[in-house]
Each structure stands twice: as C-alpha cells, then as structure tokens.
Amino acid sequence: MAERNDQEEIRLKRRAELIEHGHNPYPARTKTTTTIQHLREHWKVDQSATISGRVRAIRLQGGSAFIDLDDGTGKLQLFLQKKQLGDTFASLTSALDLGDFLEASGVTFLTKAGEQSLNTSDAKWLAKALRPLPSNWHGLEDVEVRYRHRELDLVTNPETKTIFLQRATIVRTLREELHRHGFVEVETPMLQPLAGGASAKPFVTHHNALDIDLFLRVAPELYLKRLIVGGFNRVFEVARCFRNEGIDRDHNPEFTQVELYAAYHDYRWLMDFTEKLVVNIATSVHGRPIFIHEQQEQPLATPFPRITYHDAIKQYTEIDIDAVDDQALVAAARQRGTDIPDGLGRGKVIDELFKTHVRPKLITPTFVFDYPLELSPLAKKKADQPTYTERFQLLMGGTELGNAFSELNDPIDQRQRFQEQERLRDSGDEEAQRVDEDFLEALEYGMPPTAGLGIGIDRLTAVLTGHHTLKDVILFPTLRPKS
C-alpha cells in the first residue's frame, strides 16, 4: 500500500475518533424510507422522511450547516442546527468529509429562496470515506484514471453513468425484441475443449482435476447450432467472449456479443430482421431512430443500403478481386497503401483491403453481403457463385457491428472447410479454426436451413451513443497494469 497523504491521514483520525466516541461509521442497516427522486417528485412540505446518500457539499454557518446529499437518484439539501441536534451537530461538523455516506431523518420544508430541503432532526454515518473524491467542479479528467477507476468516473462525471444506463437499455431491448419474436435465451459453455466458432486466437487455461487444457470461448456459435440440431428453432445467447488479440478502439480481449440462430430462414431474411432490430434498439435509447457520429445526430433511415463485398472493394479501391491472381492482388493492395506482410494468404489480403479501404468509409448503416469463401468457413456457399458465401456484415460508424450467415449445414462440406482451416493453421495462422468432431457429428444428425447472426454489444453501444473507443462503453476495460 502506498503511503497515505495528509488528507487521508486526517480522515483516518476522524474515523478513529468516531469509534472512540461510540459512533459506528459502518453500520449494516439503514432506516431509509424513500429516494430523493421520489421525495422531489411527490413533494409536500412538512412530511417526514429518512434519506441516505453521499455527501457532495458542506457549508458551515456558525450554529447551522447545509449539506448536499446525493443518493444516485437525485440531490437534496440537508439543513442542520446545533440547537436541534445537540452533541450530534458537533460530531457531524467536526468529523464529516466530502464523500461520506449519511442517513438523515427530518421534515421537508422550503428555504426562503424556494429550495427543497430537509430540516434534519437526526443523522448518522453509513460509511466513512477514507479517500477524498476528485474535484466536484472539474470531475475526473485523466482518461487513464477514468478507465482504471471507473467508480470514481461514475461518481464525478454524470455523463459516464448515462452511457452505462444507455448500454443497459440496449441489452434489455435486445432481449425483449428477441423474446417477442420467439427466440429462447440459453447458456453454453465458456470453457471449451476447442476454441471454435470464429477465427481468433484463444486464451488457454488448465483444469487440474481433469488434467486437461481448456479454452475460453471465442464464440458460442457451434454450441448454439448444436441446439438447432436438437430442436430449438430459435435460440440466442448474450455471451461473454474472449480473444487473445490486440487492444484498440474496436477490440477488447473480453467482450459481450449476442448470437442468435433461426431455423428455416436464410441470410436475406436475417438482413431484414437485423435492420428492424437495430432501429428498435436505437429508438429505445434515443426516443427516435438515430445514432451519434462525430457528435452529430444521424438518422437510421430504412431500408439500409446493401452492397456486395466484391462491389464494395471495387468501388473504394478500383480492384476487381475476381480478375486478378494472388501476385497481382498483393501488388495492387500494396500500391494503395495496404499493409500486406509477405506470405499472407489470398483471403487475408482481401480482408486487409476491406478493413483498410472500405470499412472506415461506411458511416451510414450498410449491409455488405456475399463474402469470399476463403473468409467464411462456417457460411453456406452461394449456389450460383460457389467462390462466394451467403454471408453479410452490418457496417456502421466505420466499424463492423454484426456478422451473419446462411449457416453451413452440409457436414461433408463443413469438414472440408475445417480441414482447410487446419492447413492454414499449420502454415502459421494462429487464428485459423480447428476441426471440431463433436460439432461435425451433430451436423451429421441433420440441421435444417438456418440463419445466424452475431452482434457486438460493446460496438453497438459505442456507435449508437457516439463514442470513439470501446473503453468508453465497457465498465472495466482491460488495461496494462501500472508499473
């Protein structure tokens, strides 16, 4: 523990004095009767109330004091008088610090200035704060400290709390919409013998009792599709996932996504469904179908534009990926400033072109569909274009929000795709997927035509609320430890 500063030493001394004089600065119970918000909304003069909250301001005036109390629902002024409180007044005014939690009982009244207040007849500590809060005037401004100590960010920056209330609204609305359309919420393993369902490097751990290595899931996809095989026609999971990858504005090693699967539907039906889902979620957050980009409101006009993956790359790079061989593709990509390391496979080169030159340009919500086979090991091939798949991504605000397929349900084709992924893995691609025999066995029992979608909750929250980085919308983002 670091050495305490003078303010902290004073607070520790005051704590000790409270205990010495018979006060418990950390009681287990409170007699609170109402919230400050409820009291204000149903205000009547001369009504008795007991409220509790954090001390935000202290103003001493001889034998009286004014204290601002904040309980998270609102703020109310307490009025304390020595002649009414007796010895309690002295202990309060001598030992009270900003940030302490108090319980206060009294009767409501209006000051001469018309301010709603509580004439306090009794008060006691609920928690003594041993560290001072950041300045109430300026809030917590150091971005690194805001991410590392979110509790202080929430206490001092009201707008931060708004972000996470909006995030809660997004998740709640998402669940309500899916339940309304007949989807069943399920839970699948977070510890998996194989990390499947997405192309990503996993975290590995060891289970001592079984003496086996297990992986933190990179996606719930394969288990959810096994439930489709088992007869759940519509399922979804709000899933915590983990990928051992870099950290930037769009990536955090642990993140939340929703994955949903609907039997007897395809990716075109799912585009329509996704469009309505996103519009309804945005409306629940903002009261109307908009999102925020560069601090400006942007309409969520429907229908969302739709463009094929091939045409999107051609439009923004002037490269026809169907008309060039591997060598010419690499040369054209590098000529346009794309970072292409030596030895990168064709699929990865195409993907880097898209990420560098297309994705950042798509601010208005846009469906990019029909992805190359090399990039889509779990999606069904297009019947008329077998080098492409029935896959789409929802791009919005310059980032990818959702990824969806007409799911591959041919077990022989799926095995061949997995085997190709294994070959990529053997050649050095750590993100390539593995052959999952349990999943393949499940497919051999038969899976109906199915549409599947994954949406990143963190990214959706950031884009809808106009925040530049996921760290702003994840309560406790992963950070490098302090040295």
Highlighted features:
five-stranded mixed beta barrel; 483 residues; elongated; BirA Bifunctional Protein, domain 2; 15 helices; OB fold (Dihydrolipoamide Acetyltransferase, E2P); single chain; 34% helix
Summarize the structure.
This protein is an alpha+beta fold and 483 residues long. It is 34% helix and 26% strand. It has helices spanning 6-20, 36-41, 82-85, 87-95, 143-148, 150-156, 158-180, 221-229, 267-286, 309-317, 326-335, 346-358, 411-426, 437-444, 457-465, and strands spanning 48-61, 64-70, 75-81, 101-110, 116-127, 184-185, 191-192, 204-207, 212-216, 234-242, 254-263, 290-293, 296-299, 306-308, 366-372, 388-396, 399-406, 450-456.
Question: What would your notes on this structure say?
Answer:
The strands form four sheets. This protein has an eight-stranded mixed β-sheet with strand order 6-10-11-18-17-16-15-14, sandwiched between helices. The chain has a five-stranded mixed β-barrel with strand order 1-2-3-5-4. Helix content is 34%, strand content 26%. It contains 15 helices and 18 strands. The chain has two domains: 6-133, Nucleic acid-binding proteins (OB fold (Dihydrolipoamide Acetyltransferase, E2P)), CATH 2.40.50; 155-305 and 364-472, Bira Bifunctional Protein, Domain 2 (BirA Bifunctional Protein, domain 2). With 483 residues, it is α+β, with helices and mostly antiparallel strands. The longest helix is centred in the middle third of the chain and has 23 residues, at 158-180. Helix 6 (150-156) packs across helix 7 and helix 10 packs across helix 12. The two termini are 14 Å apart. The protein has helices at 6-20, 36-41, 82-85, 87-95, 143-148, 150-156, 158-180, 221-229, 267-286, 309-317, 326-335, 346-358, 411-426, 437-444, 457-465, and strands spanning 48-61, 64-70, 75-81, 101-110, 116-127, 184-185, 191-192, 204-207, 212-216, 234-242, 254-263, 290-293, 296-299, 306-308, 366-372, 388-396, 399-406, 450-456.
